[in-house]
Design a protein that fits this description.
The protein has about 200 residues and is α+β, with helices and mostly antiparallel strands. The protein has helices at about 70-80, 150-165, 180-200; strands spanning about 25-30, 35-40, 45-50, 60-65, 90, 95-100, 110-120, 125, 130-135, 175-180. It is built from 3 helices and 10 strands. It has a 5-stranded mixed beta barrel with strand order 1-4-6-9-7. It has a two-stranded antiparallel ribbon with strand order 2-3. GO terms for molecular function: inorganic diphosphate phosphatase activity.
């Protein structure tokens, strides 16, 4: 009898058969969470990273694309975009936000269509945030580029990432170099897949 093992969400699941056009996403945090959960890289289980200190609540599903890693190739794209203060990727899987009109729990796998993202620089590290829509979502599913999303929705996401690490009287710890569309988002995904292959093989 063959034992039934659970695949590691980061290393045991592909980025998606049709990536970068449609990607698999492992959801770590949902908009109702007041705790920041993060995948434990060793075990693959969700663990508590920290309670959210302030009223900053993630306005979309948030997680990562499996078998991605942000290092040299992702950093090069940030440099090409004009970032002069970046020296590396953040050495984590590629972050992704998924817009959906449905209530979804954390710790699940879903398919999403990348429509753009934010070139975020955090302490000299390229920390891209891909923005995507849930496949077949009745409200967001038809969008194919971040330019089609209401500006208020984009601003909400930007505000979260620019403020969620800061005390009210602290200077900003990170900045957004640029907002990019679907074409560049796919380049970032491919770069992070290359970084994963270079780091972990396969």
């Amino acid at each position: 009898m063959i034992p039934n093992f659970k695949a590691h969400p980061w290393h045991g699941i592909s980025a998606g058969e049709d990536s970068p056009n449609v990607v698999n996403v492992f959801v770590e945090i949902v908009p109702s969470d007041t705790i920041k959960y993060e995948i434990d890289k060793t075990t693959g289980y969700l663990k508590i990273d920290r309670p959210q200190k302030f009223s900053n609540i993630i306005p979309a599903l948030y997680g990562f694309v499996p078998k991605t890693y942000c290092d040299t190739e992702v950093m090069k794209l940030a440099v090409e975009s004009g970032a002069t203060d970046v020296t590396t990727g953040d050495h984590d899987p590629l972050d992704i936000c998924v817009l959906s009109s449905h209530n979804i729990t954390g710790g699940v796998l879903l398919e999403a269509v990348p429509i753009g993202g934010f070139k975020m620089i955090d302490g000299g590290e390229a920390d891209d945030k891909i923005v995507a829509v849930l496949v077949n979502d009745h409200v967001f599913g038809q969008f194919r580029d971040i330019s089609e999303i209401p500006k208020a929705e984009v601003n909400r996401l930007m505000h979260y990432f620019l403020t969620y690490k800061n005390l009210p009287d602290e200077p900003a710890k990170c900045r957004i170099q640029e907002i990019y569309g679907a074409d560049h988002a796919k380049k970032v995904i491919e770069a992070s897949k290359k970084d994963y292959s270079d780091k972990f093989g396969g």
